[in-house]
Design a protein that fits this description.
279 residues; Rossmann fold; six-stranded mixed beta sheet; binds adenosine-5'-triphosphate; binds magnesium ion; four-stranded antiparallel beta sheet; alpha/beta
Length: 279
C-alpha cells in the first residue's frame, strides 16, 4: 500500500521542515546520518561525538558492553531520549536530508517515520490484537474500517504473525506468547509505515526459536526499510547485520561492514570485545 493511501489529509504527516534553511540540510544520500552527536544525563556524558552513516535498506547492529551507550544512542535516533528527564543532546541526526533535531521538525512526526521496538514486548495491556496494531492509526485520525482492517492485516503479515492470529484478532494482545507479543509490537510499528525501524535488544527476552523468527523477519523487513538493532548477541549481530558499530564508554570505537568488523577489526579493543575477552 502506498504511503499516501493513509496519509493524514491535513498534510501533518509531512515534515514541517521541508522549508528548513539550508544549513539544516545535508544531501549525503544516506538514510540516517549521525553527526558530531553528544548526549548527557545531567552532567554525565553518555555519548561522545558519535559519527556514522546508514545506507537505506541495510541492517546496522550496535554492539558493546553494558552501559556503553547503545540504548541512549538508538533512542536518540528518533528523539525518544529527550523524553528522559535531565537528558540533553548536542549534534545532529539526519533522516534523509533533514536534521531531526532542527527546531522546525515535529518530534511526533519523527517517531512515525522512525519506529521503535523495545527489549521487552510491550503490547497495550487492555487492547485486543487488532487494536494494538490499529491504535496508532486511530490516533492519527484514520476511521475508515476497511482501511484499518487492510493495514492491520498487512502489518501482521509484515511481522510474520498473521497466520497465527488471523482467526483471533479480538483476543487480548497479552494472551500471546512472548515471541508473538514481540511480533505484535513489530506489527504495531509497521502499521505507521516507518522508513526506519529501531530495535533495542528485541530478542533478549525470547527463546531461541522465537528469536530466530525475529531474525528471519529482519531479513525480510530490510527490503522495505532501514533497520538499526542493538544486540548483545555477537552471533546475532553477525547473522542479521550488514554493518556493525562497536561502542565503548560512550564512544563509537569502530564502524564498518559486519564481515570486516568480525573478521578483521582495525582496533584491538574491538577484537578483544568480539573475541569475548571482556563484555
Ligand atoms: N535515565 C538515565 N539517567 C541517568 N543516566 C542514565 C540514564 N540512562 C542511561 N544512563 C547512563 O548512560 C550510560 C549509557 O547507558 P545505556 O543505557 O545507553 O547503555 P547500554 O549500552 O544500552 O547498556 P545495556 O547493554 O546494559 O543496555 C550509562 O552510564 C547509564 O548509567
Ligand atoms: Mg541498553
Amino acid at each position: 500500500m502506498a504511503r499516501e493511501d493513509f496519509a493524514d489529509p491535513s498534510g501533518k504527516l509531512e515534515y514541517h521542515s521541508r522549508e528548513a534553511s539550508s544549513n539544516l540540510e545535508s544531501d549525503s544520500g544516506y538514510k540516517v546520518s549521525v553527526k558530531n552527536f553528544n548526549s548527557w544525563f545531567g552532567t554525565k556524558q553518555a555519548l561522545k561525538n558519535i559519527n556514522f552513516d546508514v545506507k537505506e535498506n541495510t541492517v546496522t547492529a550496535l554492539i558493546g558492553p553494558s552501559g556503553c551507550g547503545k540504548t541512549t544512542l538508538i533512542r536518540s535516533l528518533n528523539r525518544m531520549n529527550e523524553m528522559t528527564s535531565g537528558a540533553t543532546v548536542k549534534g545532529s541526526v539526519f533522516l534523509d536530508d533533514v536534521d531531526i533535531y532542527s527546531g522546525k521538525v515535529d518530534p511526533v512526526i519523527i517517531k512515525r517515520r522512525i519506529g521503535m521496538v523495545f527489549q521487552k514486548p510491550n503490547p497495550f495491556p487492555t487492547m485486543s490484537i487488532f487494536d494494538n496494531v490499529a491504535a496508532g492509526l486511530k490516533l492519527n485520525g484514520i476511521k475508515d474500517k476497511k482501511m484499518l482492517r487492510e493495514i492491520v492485516e498487512e502489518s501482521l503479515k509484515g511481522s510474520a504473525l498473521w497466520t497465527e492470529v488471523k482467526d483471533e484478532l479480538d483476543k487480548p494482545g497479552m494472551s500471546l506468547s512472548g515471541g508473538q507479543q514481540q511480533r505484535l509490537c513489530i506489527a504495531r510499528a509497521l502499521a505507521m509505515q516507518p522508513e526506519v525501524l529501531l530495535m533495542d535488544e528485541p530478542t533478549s527476552a525470547l527463546d531461541p526459536i522465537a528469536s530466530s523468527k525475529i531474525e528471519e523477519l529482519i531479513h525480510e523487513l530490510k527490503k522495505d526499510l532501514t533497520i538499526i538493532i542493538v544486540t548483545h548477541n555477537m552471533q546475532q549481530a553477525a547473522r542479521v547485520s550488514d554493518y556493525t558499530a562497536f561502542m565503548y564508554l560512550g564512544e563509537l570505537v569502530e564502524y564498518g561492514p559486519t564481515k570486516q568488523i568480525f573478521e578483521n577489526p582495525t582496533k584491538e579493543l574491538t577484537e578483544n570485545y568480539i573475541s569475548g575477552k571482556f563484555g
